[in-house]
Design a protein that fits this description.
Layout: H1 8-12, H2 19-35, H3 40-47, H4 51-65, E1 70-73, E2 78-81, H5 94-110, H6 133-145, E3 147-155, E4 158-173, E5 178-184, E6 189-194, E7 198-207, H7 216-219, E8 221-228, H8 234-243, E9 251-256, H9 260-266, H10 278-281, E10 283-285, H11 288-295
Antiparallel strand pairs: 1-2, 3-4, 3-7, 4-5, 5-6, 8-9, 8-10
Helix pairs in contact: 2-5, 3-4
């Protein structure tokens, strides 16, 4: 499948496209490919545009981006992907559709009157951890400007708020929380600080000497090699391999050393034990000893 912006016509017209137009084109591809029926209503409800504009966008997509990618089906009263459909502004992965669902569910939760056209889905959301916008802005600005900042922070091991001088370099989103990766002057090492545990902003401490470039674990990539549990039958192993999109019986996932613990948690793996039932385990880490060195 082709990746984004491989259409020479659009390059001649000043590609990349305007952000809002690119987002509409992406939704056109995502809905058509994964739902099999695209109507102007999807665009109208998602972007707050008139039906005439939505129709114009679909025609422009077919004219300028991907001629013949969509076919109008009078029975469906909408467009469906052509047999030779090839994504041009998306990667053609199911994750894009699932992320679109997640985003629309978030909007629908906040704006209860919105109908974004994805009625046949339900999401189970984990509790959102509270993050003070003033705190987040201060961390983002310090990271952007390459500064150290003195912040008030609480932890499970300390009963009181404690002053921490840190040099933040990257915000990290894991399935369960947001944290900031930063050099900590108290520990003289790079640490992960949970955003919801910052309590106050003290002051900027000047330029940071310890930056992302010096964060060895952040700059070290480690492959997590997943394989089906060998205790499963050959048929069961084939199913698991398909589930995880394995090639030649394995899936290689490059992960920053600093993020290995979160990746292992997201994969629901326990590196210290083996489940008694292989049906519960399903996958194992083939290079366990190497991954363990980065997981704790």
């Amino acid at each position: 499948m082709n990746n984004t912006h491989d259409v020479s016509e659009n390059e001649e017209q000043g590609w990349p496209l305007r952000w809002e137009l690119l987002m509409r084109y992406r939704l056109i591809e995502i809905v058509a490919l994964w739902e099999g029926r695209l109507t102007t209503k999807h665009l109208c409800n998602s972007f707050g545009i008139a039906r005439q504009q939505a129709s114009k966008d679909i025609n422009a997509y077919l004219r300028d981006v991907a001629p013949d990618n969509l076919v109008y089906d009078s029975k469906l009263r909408g467009y469906k992907p052509a047999s030779h459909f090839s994504p041009k502004v998306t990667s053609g992965l199911a994750d894009e559709y699932l992320h679109a669902l997640a985003s629309t569910k978030d909007f629908a939760h906040t704006f209860s009157q919105l109908d974004l056209g994805f009625a046949h889905t339900e999401m189970l959301n984990t509790p959102v951890r509270q993050v003070n916008p003033d705190i987040l802005r201060a961390l983002v600005q310090a990271a952007r400007d390459g500064n150290k900042i003195d912040m008030g922070y609480v932890s499970l091991t300390s009963p009181d708020e404690e002053s921490r001088i840190i040099a933040p370099h990257t915000l990290v989103c894991t399935p369960l929380r947001w944290h900031v990766r930063a050099y900590c002057e108290k520990n003289r090492d790079y640490r992960d600080f949970v955003l919801s545990r910052f309590r106050s902003i003290n002051h900027i401490e000047g330029s940071a000497q310890m930056t992302k470039a010096e964060d060895t674990r952040w700059n070290t990539l480690v492959d997590i090699i997943l394989v089906p549990d060998s205790r499963l039958s050959a048929y069961q192993q084939t199913i698991i391999a398909d589930d995880y999109n394995m090639t030649q019986g394995k899936r290689v996932i490059p992960v920053r050393s600093a993020l290995i613990p979160y990746a292992v948690q997201a994969l629901n793996l326990d590196l210290t034990k083996i489940e008694a039932r292989p049906e519960a385990q399903q996958i194992v880490v083939a290079n366990l000893d190497e991954v363990r060195k980065h997981a704790f």
